[in-house]
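Exercise 7.
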Amino acid sequence: MICGIDLALSGTLPGGWLADAQQIELVLEKLAAVPPQLLYLFIGIGVAIENFFPPIPADTFVVLGAFLSAQGRATGTGVFVVTWACNTLAALLNYAIALRWGRRVLGTRPGRWLLRPRQLEKLAGLYNAHGSKIIFASRFLPAFRALVPVFAGISHLSFWRTALPIALSSAIWYGILVYAGAVFGRNWKVILNALNEVNTLLVAIASVLAVVITVVWWKTRYHPHEAEPVDGGEG
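Solution. The predicted structure, written as tokens, is:
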């Protein structure tokens, strides 16, 4: 059963929207036959994986769960709690991994190619000054939502300054999706069309931001007085 759902979801578009009405009907039909406990597990795992593999369409899992709540196969509260908790915990796991091992990785030769010591200092300074605001805003942007907890960990931002904006932004975003999906569950084309338009705008914003960050990263790669570091990570 789950394999069949996965195959149907494999036809999603890059932005995370199901390709056509026929696929949506197929997925909803398969999910409707899944026991509620397994349904919540499926939705929770789908949402959590986005934090480790951004192409996974977390929004799609949330909306599908909301549609099913409108059909009585799940509850809106249950879908919201599962998606919010799984997404938040997965993001904080990313943060914890980066906090523990991030700087050690950046101390290796490949890591220094990604971020040179001077760049890491500037990143840490930026996060320590505005980290919570950066995290909150970025969690609404595709791809960036998976990266900001990692950079927060690398910058050694405190747990609560990281966890609170992640939890709040996830609650707002998934709360809106679950509510809209539950309200328009019988007419899911309305919410999917709206989500398509919103995600198109968010992808455009994220793309512009990615270009700006790439330019800044490249321009700050080298400094005339910065010596090439000797290979070898932190102990």
